[in-house]
Amino acid sequence: MSEVWEYYRLELVAVEDQIRQNLGSKVALVNTVAAHILNSGGKRIRPLLLILCARLAGYAGRDDVLLASLIEYIHTATLLHDDVVDHAEFRRGRRTA
Predict the structure, then answer these.
(1) Which residues touch 39 (CB under 8 Å, ≥6 apart)?
(2) pTM score, two decimals?
(3) How far apart, in whole angstroms, are the C-alpha atoms of residue 3 and residue 68?
(4) d(Cα 68, Cα 63) in Å, to the nearest integer?
């Protein structure tokens, strides 16, 4: 699997850049929560799967990076929502946002 990560490394770096580029908010709390969640690690397997599927389907454009970043935003939002609904203080041993 590490070969796949390395092969698509540039695309995954572009996804990270896209995520961070669109993170800004005028509300400081939103920035703090978003940074906490997005910097908490993760393998970014969802974006990788989207990029792999796009390549398998013959897609050669650059919108896959944007869509991959959107998938991470949606995933992050669902995690945050789950933590709020459950009143969770920890997720996988780390404090929640």
Answers:
(1) none
(2) 0.74
(3) 20
(4) 8
Using alpha carbons, list the distances in angstroms from residue 4 to 15, 53, 91.
Answer: 16, 13, 28
DSSP, res 87: T
Query: Token pair of 25, please?
Result: 């908010």
For residues 41 and 36, give the distance between their C-alpha atoms in angstroms, rounded to a whole number.
Answer: 10
pLDDT, tens only, 28-41: 877 777 777 677 66
Looking at residue 46, its pLDDT comes to 94
Those residues with Cβ within 8 angstroms of residue 25's Cβ, 6 or more apart along the chain or in another chain: 31, 34
Token pair in block for residue 83 = 């933590």
CA distance 34 to 73: 9
Query: Closest Cα partner for 8 from 46, 64, 51?
Result: 51
